Amino acid sequence: QVQLVESGGGLVQAGGSLNLSCAASGRPSSGYTMAWFRQAPGKEREFVAGISWSDGKTVYADSVKGRFTISRDNAKNMVYLQMNSLRPEDTYVYYCGARRDRIVVSRSTGYGYWGQGTQVTVSS
After folding, report:
1. What mean pLDDT is reported for the chain?
2. Residues above pLDDT 90, as percent of the chain
3. DSSP secondary structure code for residue 101 in this structure
4. What is the reported pLDDT for 51?
């Protein structure tokens, strides 16, 4: 069983940066992948970035490539999302997800564990 807790959201001006953190308890094994998704009210959860816990291989949504970076710290059981050059359209609740598989997938139904979410608001 994996439990996830996100932090680091907030209000930032366009062009600014935020670093989201996801603390994973239950010690995800090398067979897991971790991902960040985001969701607006009444909309589906949208894939942002994913990383394999074992080899660190990353996958990004086209909308965030070159601006966002996902990383992990195996020793601390932490996953991060560094978000640079933020835009008002990046305003969402951001969720950390975990999947018991080595392959990163972009569908939210592929992830069985979720955090409570953290709000990111980018003002213009």
Report:
1. 94
2. 85
3. S
4. 96
Contacts 24+ apart (CB under 8 A), 55-62: 57/104, 58/104, 59/104, 59/106, 61/106
Region at 86 (left for phi over 0; alpha for psi -120 to 50; beta for the rest):
beta
3-class state of residue 98 by DSSP: strand
Kindly provide the residue ranges of all beta strands, DSSP E only, lying in the chain, ordered along the sequence. Answer: 3-7, 10-13, 18-25, 33-39, 46-52, 58-60, 68-73, 78-83, 92-99, 113-114, 118-123
Q: What is the pLDDT of residues 81-99, one digit of tens each?
A: 999 999 999 999 999 999 9
Residue 63 carries which side chain, given as an amino acid letter? Answer: S
Residues shown for the chain: 124
pLDDT band at 28 (very low <50, low <70, confident <90, very high): low
